[in-house]
Amino acid sequence: MSRERERERERERERERERERERERERERERERERERERERERERERERERERERERERERERERERVFCSE
Question: What is the DSSP letter of 72?
Answer without folding.
Answer: -
